[in-house]
Amino acid sequence: AAAAAATENSPNAFDAKIEAGSAADYFRYYAMIPQQQNMLQDRVRTGTYFTAIMENAADFRGKVVLDVGAGTGILSFFAAMAGAKRVYAVEASRMSEHCQRLLDGNPRLKDVVVVVHGKVEEVEIPEPVDVLVSEPMGTMLYNERMIESYLIARDRFMRKDALTGAPVGRMFPGAARVHCSLFGDETLWTEIRDKAHFWLSQDFYGVDLTPLREEALKSYYRQCTVDAFDPALLLAPPASFFWDWMKLRADNLEVLEFPLRFTCKRSGTLHGVASWFDVSFEGSVAQRWLTTAPGLPTTHWFQMRFVFQSPIS
Predict the structure, then answer these.
(1) What is the pLDDT of residues 253-262, one digit of tens each?
(2) Is residue 11 over pLDDT 90?
(3) CB half-sphere exposure, 163, CA atoms < 13 A
(4) pLDDT of residue 191 exceeding 90
(5) Is the pLDDT at 28 greater than 90, yes or no?
(6) Per-residue confidence (pLDDT) for residue 27, from 0 to 100
């Protein structure tokens, strides 16, 4: 089976949402082997994908699979090992060349996996697909906007119901949640405040820097913190938001709103809002969750925290 890439200059949804320079930097970053190694060595990430696919091998056996943003092709290889008839590994960065080299070095997979260089918004696949696999998550789930490409691939390539035209098949992962909660962390708040201490200098080579002190503080507190933290810092049960990726439209992700209401379970100083996410692999045999929750084994996504400049008692 053959798959073709469209011309690089053709208009598509990806080019419409991402500035050209940012897109080039994005693809250069993911074409770096050290970055791919960082993701592969995330045992929670890679191990959960492997287990979810293998324990649901019945959903892959004899099926046509599309891997969206394949990178090194590891998910494509898992799908082939689970018995897929054909796997299309679509990768827009130059990592597709390394994916092909890995495929060439694993002869038992060569007759199943086809590497396709290009964006899922542009490439052509010669047959409908039964299963989509992808690792499209960014920090706080939707950062990097790859999930939109995942949904576009579903609409373009997944087999359709003859009556409704709705996609028919499975997505691994197929659903996701974002969780938000309040936290108190005096140490983190102080660390951020102290970054602006430089701007208290009244004699920096003869220049008074203090006029920029307040703006510097605002700039530092506007930056989110990506790290792992102790769940004991949380002050309230999380507010959770759920998306079914089999039904969600890509354009619904252009603007995201998270209306938050919390009931604090203990007293303390509130320093900000923390967030984490998890995704669901729901197969015909078993369901499995990949979570980035605090207190559980850390992933390369960590958690994300938004720190208030003015704490609330």
Answers:
(1) 999 999 999 9
(2) no
(3) 0
(4) yes
(5) no
(6) 73
Give, rounded to a whole angstrom, the gap between the first and last alpha carbons of the chain: 63
Encoded tokens for 286: 């078993």
Other CB atoms within 10 A of residue 121 CB = 20
Contact, 134 vs 67, CB < 8 A?
A: yes
> Both tokens of residue 226?
């990506």
What's the mean pLDDT when you consider all of the chain?
Answer: 93
Q: Where are the alpha helices (DSSP H) in 12-113?
A: 13-17, 20-30, 33-40, 43-55, 74-81, 95-104, 107-110
Q: Tell me, what's the pLDDT at 69?
A: 96
Instruction: Label the pairing between strands 131-134 and 170-172.
Output: parallel
Q: Compute the distance between CA of residue 191 and CA of residue 212 in angstroms, rounded to an integer.
A: 18
Strands (DSSP E) contained in the chain are: 64-68, 86-91, 113-117, 131-134, 170-172, 175-183, 225-227, 239-244, 270-282, 287-291, 303-312
CA angle, residues 201, 204, 205, in degrees to nearest 5:
165
Residue 214 clears pLDDT 80, i.e. is over it = yes
Largest CA distance in the chain: 76
**How far apart, in whole angstroms, are the C-alpha atoms of residue 36 and residue 115?**
17
Q: How distant is the alpha carbon of residue 290 from its chain centre?
A: 12
218: exposed, middle or buried (Cβ count in 10 Å: 0-12, 13-18, 19+): exposed
Q: What is the pLDDT of residue 14?
A: 66
Instruction: Identify the pLDDT of residue 4.
Output: 53
| Number of CB atoms found within 10 A of residue 270's CB | 18
Average pLDDT over residues 258-271: 95
The two three-digit tokens of residue 164, written as one number? 């409704």
Who's near 73: CB < 8 A, 6+ residues apart? 67, 89, 91, 99, 102, 103, 113, 115
